Amino acid sequence: MSLIKSISGIRGTIGGKAGEGLTPIDVVKFTAAYGAWVLEKTGNSKIVIGRDARLSGEMVSKLVSATLQGLGIHVIDLGLSTTPTVELAVPAEKADGGIILTASHNPIQWNALKLLNAKGEFISDAEGKDILEKAETEDFSFAEVKKLGAYTAIDDYLDRHIQHVLDLELVDVEAIKARGFKVVVDAVNSTGGIVVPKLLKALGVEVVEEMYCTPDGHFPHNPEPLPENLRDISQKLEKGNFDLGIVVDPDVDRLALINEDGSPFGEEYTLVAVADYVLSHTKGNTVSNLSSTRALRDVTEKRGGTYTAAAVGEVNVVSQMKAVDAVIGGEGNGGIIYPTSHYGRDALVGIGLFLTHLAKFGKSISRLRATYPNYYISKNKIELTPEINVDKILSEIREKYKKQPINDIDGVKIEFEKEWVHLRKSNTEPIIRIYAESDSESKAEHLAKKIMQDIKEVVSASLI
Mind giving me the DSSP string for 114-137? Predict the structure, then answer.
């Protein structure tokens, strides 16, 4: 059993002993800490909650709701929802925070509480630390019987979210409708199975072929939208007469696309394509995290904007986007953040913008993909023994490559002519993750292996 407490929330596997897995006791304790923190900040509170379709979702939702009511907080329950839908609902309901019950792309046995502030954005590092401390010290007290919180269920926020996408200026429903798109959807039997087909039909997509769109929480494959997990939809596209495939993760904040021939568009390129479209209409800057493809920088500079890299993590990307007034940004895992909509990764907004882009492009999705620079990312990791000083290793690698441009806001990223390598230590285990990107797969792997050898030499020297 696993339980991971972090500044962004709490996640774990369902069952086991309290403090070891995500048990009802852990859910109540952490929810109470968050609720108490919200009460301290606002005095009179309302909190929005929503969940994905995981098997444990209903149980966890009832625990969270009852705990918040026990603190005297008014609960607005969206029921089956998506992460970006809850993010939109928080300010719309004039709430003081939000909790999304989802373990995102983690397997079926996992669940989590993701925490939002009053803007519907993820809480900051400092705020997360405050809540963790409250949970640890049990610094919360519950309301007396006449001051218990109210409970309101609202079941139409997915429809409101769809309308929000349709109302975006850069989403052109008529252009999409004119193309008569035939689309296959894989929603991994979570809430995307409810909202994505409805959105596509509202956008005027001619044919919507649904795969794994029953929101019963029985994931038919690993729910992370990576090519190795998407063989079924790829085969359907390869054999059928469809224009593209759309894949979302269980909480619908990541968007992956499949070409008409069954080949992956590339999760890294979801943001690249959407950014290209947005920048063609709105001049400005872009942001992605340090581990995302260089192609976004190329597209941004071609459109006359400035690209900036942020530390890994949505809250860090959002902070950097605000700092440079970015018009589009996100993460290379298919996370689109479009400030005109809201500061959160949103696959539904991404779908509206991408389909408009593809419709106006007038050719196939594979032809669109061919218009962007080709880069390949090699993802690796080195497992170390607990006694090894990871910070010292990163420091020595930074020194070794000090003549190259280096970004050390999150680990060490070393820039070369048209390639880069990013080294990050894990927060939970003695691991260094090594991501390398180049213009060919072999070059990316060669660069990663070279840096991994450098690390091994540093480790060997430190053990002598």
Answer: EEE-TTSSBPPHHHHHHHHHHHHH
Paired sense of beta strands 46-51 and 9-13, if any: unpaired
Band (5; pLDDT cuts 50, 70, 90): confident
- Other beta carbons less than 10 A from residue 291's beta carbon: 23
Helix (H) or strand (E) holding 443: helix 441-463
Catalytic pick among 45, 104, 292, 438: 104
- Quick one: DSSP state of residue 303? T
Residue 381 token pair: 């990791």
Cα separation values, 183 from 11, 180, 259, 335, Å: 33, 10, 10, 20
Is the pLDDT reported for residue 436 higher than 60?
A: yes
- How far apart (Å, rounded) are the C-alpha atoms in residues 61 and 356? 36
Active site residue 8: no
Confidence of residue 383 (pLDDT cuts 50, 70, 90): confident
Burial (Cβ within 10 Å: 0-12, 13-18, ≥19) of residue 401 = middle
Polymer length in residues for the chain: 464
Mean pLDDT, the chain, as a whole number? Answer: 95
Q: With helix as H, strand as E and coil as C, how does 229-241 read?
A: HCHHHHHHHHHCC
Q: How far apart are CA 264 and CA 271, in angstroms?
A: 14
Residue 77's DSSP bridge partners are 49, 153
Alpha-carbon span 169 to 344, nearest angstrom: 18
**Beta strands, E only, 306-394:** 307-310, 326-331, 335-337, 376-383
How does residue 464 score in pLDDT terms, banded at 50, 70 and 90? low
User: Which residues lie below 8 Å from residue 347, measured CB to CB, with a gap of 6+?
Assistant: 82, 84, 192, 196, 248, 249, 252, 253, 254, 255, 334, 336
